[in-house]
Amino acid sequence: MVKSSQPITWQAEEYITREHHTGWYIGLAVVTLALSALAVWQKWWTFLALVILSCVAILTSNLRPPRKIKYLLDDKGLTEGSNLHKFEDFKAFGILKEGNNYSAVLIPKKRFGLSVKVYFPEGSGEAIVDALGGRLPMEEIKQDFLDKIVNFLRI
């Protein structure tokens, strides 16, 4: 693979923000109350705690605005804030388009390794794809079932 000595930097939000209308919050409350009632009726106290903590986590994550993260793509790898992801840990990369947002997904070599997903502005896309393509093979990436559920629920 070709190596480039020209580093690429950009800033992007850590995740895509989604609009939540009153109906979304009402739906979350209804589901939480229904699952809580089931847990109390069946005396599943651990499940009740899980339902309540899940609701709090979803609300907290949706109400917190995303951070702006600085990215650096150079010969060492992809630096996300202060975390360096070395190219040697990944077997390939792919590009996802979600609405008007683009992201690069680095696919790990390890079977149970975590993929790395970084968003980038459309104007920087060609340089980022060229730089990644010089170091890793590009694969077609599709959203898995869990990603589709998360997008559907607007979490």
- Large-scale geometry: elongated
CATH class of the largest domain: Mainly Beta
Strand order of the largest sheet: 1-2-3-4
Q: Give helix and strand order, one letter per element, not per position.
A: EHHEEEEEEHH
How many helices? The count is: 4
Corresponding CATH architecture of the largest domain: Roll
Low-confidence stretches: none
Q: In the residues, how many domains can be counted?
A: 2
The value of Rg in angstroms is 19 Å
In this structure, how is the largest beta sheet organized? 4 strands, antiparallel
Specify the CATH homologous superfamily of the largest domain: Pleckstrin-homology domain (PH domain)/Phosphotyrosine-binding domain (PTB)
| Overall mean pLDDT | 88
Helix content: 25-40%
Tell me what you see in this structure.
With 155 residues, the protein is of the alpha+beta class. It folds into two domains: 8-15 and 66-153, PH-domain like (Roll), CATH 2.30.29; 22-63. Helix content is 37%, strand content 27%. The protein has helices at 22-42, 45-63, 125-133, 145-153, and strands at 8-13, 68-73, 77-80, 83-86, 90-98, 101-108, 116-120. A four-stranded antiparallel sheet has the order 1-2-3-4, covered by helices on one side. Strands 5-6-7 form a three-stranded antiparallel sheet, covered by helices on one side. A hairpin with a 3-residue loop joins strand 2 (68-73) and strand 3 (77-80). The longest helix has 21 residues, at 22-42. It is elongated and about 60 Å long. The model has no long low-confidence stretch (mean pLDDT 88).
